[in-house]
Amino acid sequence: MAKIGTIELGDFPLLLAPMEDVSDPPFRAVCKANGADMMYTEFISSEGLIRDAVKSKQKLDIFDYERPIGIQIFGGDEEAMALATQIVDVANPDLVDINFGCPVKKVVCKGAGAGILRDLPKMVKLTEAVVRSTKLPVTVKTRLGWDDDSKNVEEVAQRLQDVGIQALTIHGRTRAQLYKGEADWTLIAAVKNNPRISIPIFGNGDIDSAEKALEYKNRYGVDGIMIGRAAIGYPWIFKEIKHFLETGQHLAPPTISQRIDVCKTHLEKSVLWKGPRAGIYEMRRHYSQYFKGVDHFKEFRTKLVTADSLEEILFILQEVDKHYLQVESLV
């Protein structure tokens, strides 16, 4: 049984990764409905929270049906991280997560995210500041190291456990790799198998199928898996992995009608949470993912990304459903 503090997550939890501009409440809702055991908000700037920046504060929105949920923060200043943690506390998540893994240049150049991987003493101090500022469990997400010559995640895990973190998620790439190449899980396994490590270790990187989830579970012995990009437009991945782990059988892939239903739910929640303009605009990046691999979808996709009212988009989705039902009946 994987536990973070008193939060019980089951035998082999599947976690939804915190992804910037993706892991918002509408997206999290469809992932939760399809089997995600634990989720995180998009990462939130500690300085943004202290400045009362609207976009940062909106990211604190969490809902009871999402629990257990963690709010993820990032920053390179101890005092700002401590203050941000106190603000996060008020939002009442189940835990606070620190992002020490984001490879994006604008985050790294502030000494935050994966930028901290070059300064382990500072990483420890930032973590201590967060742990001291909350009674909630504190967890961390990080990478193997800065580059191939500085893969220090084993030391990172020990040092951060010593100052009080209660779980660690490791993305199997260095900062230098960004999201390229194959994730290396051997170091994640080395952390998990270190007799000094007693906290749960979750692996992240390249899990995009039920078979791979089972293979990595057995080969690397992690306590659970965090899934990011593979869930975008395909929240069924959580349900599919769970079913495969339990039965060794594959669930049937979602039908066009099921894809449309989930896409509609995502869209409607997006409009409700962000307002019509932003909700419609920000959903546009999801349509090609929801209908990935569907033959001859380009024409419908063009209509969906140019439509600018909820009614119009719902009508197009209805047309998609009718069209592919007819195609199926002819096969």
What attributes does this structure have?
TIM Barrel; alpha/beta; 331 residues; 13% strand; 2 domains; 14 helices
What does this 3D model show about the protein?
- It is a single chain.
- The radius of gyration is 20 Å and the shape is globular.
- The mean pLDDT is 93.
- 47% of the residues lie in helices and 13% in strands.
- The protein has an eight-stranded parallel barrel with strand order 3-4-6-7-8-9-10-11, surrounded by five helices.
- With 331 residues, it is of the alpha/beta class.
- It has two domains: 3-247, Aldolase class I (TIM Barrel, Alpha-Beta Barrel), CATH 3.20.20; 256-330, Non-ribosomal Peptide Synthetase Peptidyl Carrier Protein, Chain A.
- The chain starts with a strand and ends with a helix.
- The chain has 14 helices and eleven strands.
Task: List the topology elements.
Layout (H helix, E strand, L loop, with lengths): L2 E2 L2 E2 L5 E3 L8 H9 L4 E3 L3 E2 H6 L2 H5 L10 E6 L3 H14 L3 E6 L4 H4 L11 H13 L5 E6 L9 H10 L5 E4 L14 H7 L8 E4 L5 H11 L3 E4 L8 H12 L8 H19 L1 H15 L7 H9 L3 H21 L1
Parallel strand pairs: 3-4, 3-11, 4-6, 5-6, 6-7, 7-8, 8-9, 9-10, 10-11
Antiparallel strand pairs: 1-2
